[in-house]
């Protein structure tokens, strides 16, 4: 497949690139720090910003799928998720690319059965601390789910730098019982290996070890 990846220089993006190239895919990667990405014969690296589509949108045509690994740990107000996804979807429509996979967070929605300790941690500490990030993530999910694309939103729990295990649980359009942690390598594995899985299209997937 020909894949178009945003956030390729981040922790998740690096693992996604490594697995995609190792599986024989051709990849176009957009990154603000392209010098941090090792070269490869099947990899095209674009220096760019998701918020500035003029730098990459004309290259999008001919790709089979877009994968967004965008992320931020900034506590300040941000539009990188919502504004970035608005530009991505507009470019995909113009280019005829329909398959989209993006990442948000399992903490956006907690089940009523979540343990009290988790509800206190997420609701009392994490969400208030990163309220701007979660607000923009929620906006991005709304933008994606109201689009006419073949989209998948993946909601992982806390991510780690652990090894690739290929052992994880998923739940489509419902909460996953007892979420723990997940390695970025395993998240990348799911994203890559379910691009053709039509049961995951137009679905929000929770994932965890």
Automatic annotation (TrEMBL):
> Which InterPro entries does the record associate with it?
NAD(P)-bd_dom (IPR016040), NAD(P)-bd_dom_sf (IPR036291), Polyketide_Oxido-like (IPR051606)
Residues forming the NAD(P)-binding domain are 7-197
In terms of superkingdom, the source organism counts as Bacteria
Q: Under what name is this protein listed?
A: NAD(P)-dependent oxidoreductase
Record the organism: Nonomuraea spiralis
State the taxonomy lineage: Bacteria, Bacillati, Actinomycetota, Actinomycetes, Streptosporangiales
